[in-house]
Amino acid sequence: QVQLVESGGGLVQSGGSLRLSCTTSGRTFSNYAMGWFRQAPGKEREFVAAISRIGGSTDYADSVKDRFTISRDNAKNTLYLQMNSLKPEDTAVYYCASNRGMLLSTRPQRYDYWGQGTQVTVSS
Q: Of 98, 90, 83, 76, which Cα lies nearest the Cα of 32?
């Protein structure tokens, strides 16, 4: 019943920008912290960014800080990831996830629902 659907991925040149969206249903969106993770071929799933219940607190992986911005619109049940200055090493499948609670976390085990992912490919 709980569903998360990512969109906005695609192919972009190095230095370009993309904005990912994640729409949610089946639970009260504003009650839960949210996160973005990514997984490149042959690699483990990697934390990207997280945001608290109402967006007052955020956390970023060192690899994306100052380039990516996580945000949310609770009225629209939507999570966003604005990605600027993209690099080839950002190429991965990006997943949004719903936290078990209201506080942000970098740990995948704290997230109980996941989207199917959206592909981001950055060419050099």
A: 98
For residue 53, which amino acid is it?
R
Q: 106 near 48, Cβ under 8 Å?
A: no
For the chain, give percent helix, strand, coil, nearest 5: 10, 50, 40
In contact, 123 and 16? CB cutoff 8 Å: no
Smallest CA-to-CA distance from 6 within 18, 22, 19 is with: 22
The more confident residue out of 30 and 12 is: 12
pLDDT per residue as tens digits for the range 19-59: 999 999 988 888 899 999 999 999 999 999 999 998 999 99
Distance CA 14, CA 85 (A): 7
Q: How far apart are CA 55 and CA 95, in angstroms?
A: 18
* Gap between the Cα atoms of 72 and 81, Å rounded: 9
Q: What values do phi and psi take at 74, rounded to 5?
A: -65, -30
| Nearest-angstrom CA–CA distance, 43 and 55 | 29
The neighbouring-strand residues paired with 12 are 122
